Amino acid sequence: MITRFLWQGVDRKLRWFIALVLAAGIVPVLLNLFTPPGSALHVPAWALQLVGKYLCYAALALAVDLVWGYCGILTLGHAAFFALGGYCMGMYLMRQIGSRGVYGNPILPDFMVFLNYKELPWFWRGFDHFWFAAPMIVIVPSVLALALGWFAFRSRVTGVYLSIITQAMTFALMLAFFRNDTGLGGNNGMTDFKDILGFPVQADGTRAALYLASALMLALFLLIAGAIVGSRFGKALTAVRDAESRMRFLGYRVEGYKLFVFVLSAAMAGIAGALYVPQVGIINPSEFAPGNSIEAVLWVAVGGRGTLIGPVIGAVLVNWAKTYLTGALPEVWLFALGGLFIAVTLFLPRGVVGLWAQLKAGRERSRRVAPA
Amino acid sequence: MTPSRVLTGMVSLITALALAGAAVAGDLGTLVVNLTTGGFGDRETAINALAASGEPRAAPILEALGAGRLYVRPADKAVVIGKAQGNQLDLTDALTGKPAGTASEDALQRVRINNRLRGVIDDAVGSLTLLSPDPRMRRSAADSLFKQRSPSALPAVEHALAAEKDAGIKRAFAEARASIILASNDASKAQKLEAISVIRGRGDRDAMGFLQAAASSSDADIKAAATAAAGSLNQTLAVWEAAQNVWYGISLGSVLLLAAIGLAITFGTMGVINMAHGEMVMLGAYTTFVVQQVILAYAPGLFDASIVIALPLAFLVAGVIGVLIERSVIRFLYGRPLDTLLATWGLSLVLQQAVRTIFGPTNREVRAPSWMSGSFLVGQIDVTYGRLWIVVFALLVFAVLILVLRKTPLGLHMRAVTQNRPMAAAMGIRTPRVDALTFGLGSGIAGLAGVALSQIDNVSPNLGQGYIIDSFMVVVFGGVGNLFGTLLGATALGIANKFLEPYAGAVLGKILVLVFIILFIQRRPRGMFALKGRAVE
Predict the structure, then answer these.
(1) Of the residues B465, B495, B520, which one is the last residue of a structural domain?
(2) Beta pairing class for B109-110 and B70-73
(3) What is the pLDDT of residues A49-61, one digit of tens each?
(4) Domain's final residue, options B131, B156, B178
């Protein structure tokens, strides 16, 4: 029933896009596994890892778009939810190392031995089991989003004030995770992962599986987001974005709508972060840096806010450019990124996806003006 | 008087002077030669004799002896002080202090000492500086004796105490004497009790340590007196510590105020989220750097004025760039605050990278002029001149800004546009021009902040990043559109930060402050002092 609701809630264009994402998930994996390394069709494992990272970013962008594009909440702290999910996964992966660490301690991860911990802190309990870590990946970011959103939306903190609060939140978390005493690896974070679910993280097969999982996650998120946006609930959300006071006067509980989307979006970001960590092989506090959250907002703006396809395209485009430019012309990257921020806000308010519509509207306007 | 008698008089006078000089040199000469001859017991006597002579040359000679730099030159038996200069030793005549050529160490005979003599020399040097003609030397000698508490120095301290004229230094000597008496085993109980009250009067942390040590004495009276003195001193010290924290807090608050006040204008009165504000601060700091480099290259004499010269230039540089930003980007985004936020963030990245490309990614050194270095004590509070000037400067900027807003036509226009833009436009105020100037003013003040911050922070392309979040917190906490709220918010956050630091640590303290602000905004979404009126949404 749920599948039917999801599938029917999604419009035709989005269905095609989801199919495309699935194809992009499955085909390279098949090419990686079943073609010989020398062949022209072979997709190397590093490429899967790279694109898998982009797919996680795309999921984060989708989460940001759900709150910003559809509900008008500009969050400058979504990377915090992403990183929290990543840390939950990181804790699980750290516990899987077992006695294979440098210090060979069967219980304590290396950094704890190094910092003279005598026993595992209480919040590490249970993270040696995947069945415990997996729900935590969703629960931890959701609870934080629930707490922040509950207070903020109820006291009607909106607009830039909310942006500043979310930024302060991610900044405070960054400072907290940088401390060695927090018990989460300090500024080195966690790395040197060995196994995930019993499979070696570095193995090509595992990488292919993680890539496929990322693509499936993104497709699922698109489906969920599409169903929500297409439903009556989604219409109400858009209305909250466009005229919050009016919705309130009409008798809608605005804060309930906002809270639901905010928490859902945080959970999505958490899952994306959890899949990101085993693919890049490290998680550290710089993931909480306020700049990261703002960059995620840029992906949405570049692709086109208020569309579900846009953020995915924006995230992949910007990150592909980042990979290319930081490698080829490192000095240019920040100029390009900064310029992109300015250009998109000034000239592309509807993003790459809206470019066609924008051009058409511009042409029609000039046609109307011309005869006069 | 006949010429011949004058001549005779002069000759006798000159003879007398020469004889006196020879006598002094001879005296010192014997004393010094005694240092280099005989057994270690004889040398101890010689050291004490030299120290008791009151000769001005005694201190450097004894110090050289203690450091093993006193030599005898076999060629002429002269006693010299050697200073390593490459492979050679630069020699000074021990008696006159004049240069005496160079020699290799092999050609000289080192005057040897043992550990016991080293102790004797230390005591002797300490007592020598007690009688030094330089009051600062005497005071630091008294302070170091207060801390060393070496019983052998007691006679010298008492001698110096009797000879001292300056009341403050006399007290320092009395305290040193009390500290030695309290530590010694053969002082009477009455002396010790008196010593406790003298040490209590000193009232600093060292005194506290000695009193606590004395409180474990076996004598019940001394124990009681010391415990009582330590208890009352503890309270005094706690008050001083609180005062010190308040001062640190005010100092931090002034930095926050400087960084936030420009933002309070652009964010508060224009509703523009300028994420590039921190970069304006950074530009101000780099302007200071450039001004200092130019002054060092072309007019080193003006160095002490470099900060003052940099102020107007930093204001201009940041202000002009601010106006350019407003005209080229922000004016197209009015009414879209979230878009402004993104665009200015992009601008901040571009500015950072531009500075990194021009000046390089490493920290640049901006030096403090002489009037900004050093510190002084107010009671037990250590106040550095640099911090003091920054506090003064922040208040000055604040006052000038208030005056500009209240007393100038530009300020009037700015307030009018803030309160009701369409009405102001209808009254003939050119609102776009006011917008540009307001943004320029806010940016210019950020540039001024950069000049001040260049004195206490690393001048690097990332300088502004560190301040942007704090500045937003201050403005939002104080109440948007209210400059006095910004002043109060900056001071309150600064002091809160410094009071939390000792208990929670610097990072956790900052986190607590951030969490507090997040919760505070929930209660009062418009800050401590919200603008009243209809301009709510």
Answers:
(1) B465
(2) antiparallel
(3) 999 999 999 999 9
(4) B131
B299: distance to nearest CA of chain A, Å? 35
pLDDT digits (tens, 9 = 90+) for A15-44: 899 999 999 989 888 888 888 887 878 888
Residues in chain B within 8 Å Cβ distance of A290: 469
> Is position A197 within any domain?
yes
- A183: Cα separation from own chain's centroid: 25
pLDDT < 70 stretches in chain B: 1-26, 52-56, 126-127, 268, 530-537
Q: Tell me which chain B residues have a C-beta less than 8 angstroms from the C-beta of A341.
A: 342-343, 345-347, 349
Q: How far is B340 from chain A (nearest CA, A)?
A: 8
Residues B373 and B320 in one domain: yes
- Structure tokens belonging to residue B23: 């006598």
pLDDT tens-digit map of B63-96: 788 878 888 888 777 888 888 777 778 888 877 8
B507 domain residue, yes or no = no
- Token pair for B347: 């601008």
Residue B500 lies in a domain: no
B213 and B249 housed in the same domain: no
pLDDT of residue A181 exceeding 90: no
Q: pLDDT: is B14 or A70 the higher one? A: A70
Number of domains comprising chain B: 3
Q: Provide the percentage of residues in chain B whose pLDDT is more than 70.
A: 92
pTM assigned to the model: 0.77
Structural domain boundaries enclosing A251: 2-287
Evaluate whether residue A146 is within a structural domain.
yes
Ramachandran angles phi, psi of B89, nearest 5°: -110, 130
d(CA A243, CA A21): 34
**Residue A225: what pLDDT?**
94
Any idea which residue has 């500045």 for tokens? B471
Name the phi and psi angles at A105, rounded to 5: -80, 125
A175 CA to centre of own chain? 21
Q: What is the pLDDT of residue B537?
A: 42
Q: How many domains does chain A have?
A: 1
Residue A80 has pLDDT above 60, yes or no: yes
* CB nearest to B469's CB, from A290, A337, A345: A290
- Cα–Cα distance between B392 and B468 in angstroms, integer? 22
Output the pLDDT for position B223: 81
A338 CB near a chain B CB, below 8 Å?
yes
> What residues 239-268 of chain A have any CB closer than 8 A to a CB of chain B?
245
Asked if A157 reaches chain B (Cβ–Cβ under 8 Å), the answer is yes
Bridge partner residues of B110 (DSSP): B71
Question: Tens digits of per-residue pLDDT, B391-409?
Answer: 999 999 999 999 998 999 9
The reply to whether residue A172 touches residue B515, judged by beta carbons under 8 angstroms, is yes
Task: Answer yes or no: is A279 within a domain.
Answer: yes
ipTM of the complex, rounded to two decimals: 0.85
Q: Are B507 and A167 inside 8 Å of each other by CB?
A: no
Cβ neighbours of A161 in B, within 8 Å:
476, 521, 525
Distance between CA atoms of A252 and A257, rounded to whole angstroms?
9
* Disruptive mutation site among B521, B524, B531, B534 for chain A (greatest number of A CBs within 10 Å): B521
Interface test with chain A among B514, B531, B536, by most A beta carbons within 10 Å: B514
Closest-CA residue in chain B for A74? B338
How far is the C-alpha of B238 from the C-alpha of B229, rounded, in Å?
Answer: 14
Q: Is residue B505 part of a domain?
A: no
User: What gap in Å lies between CA B96 and CA B110, rounded to an integer?
Assistant: 19
Whether residue B119 sits in one domain with residue B147: no
Q: What are phi and psi of B378, to 5 degrees?
A: -110, 105
Same domain membership, residue B429 and residue B328: yes
At B149 the pLDDT is 77
Whether A294 has its CB under 8 Å from any CB of chain B: the answer is yes
Average pLDDT over residues A205-223: 93
Encoded tokens for B434: 């006011």
Shared domain for B32 and B171, answered yes or no, is no
Question: Domain limits at B309?
Answer: 241-465
Both tokens of residue A361?
């509207």
Q: What is the mean pLDDT of residues A71-93?
A: 94
Chain B residue numbers with beta carbons less than 8 Å from the beta carbon of A65 are none
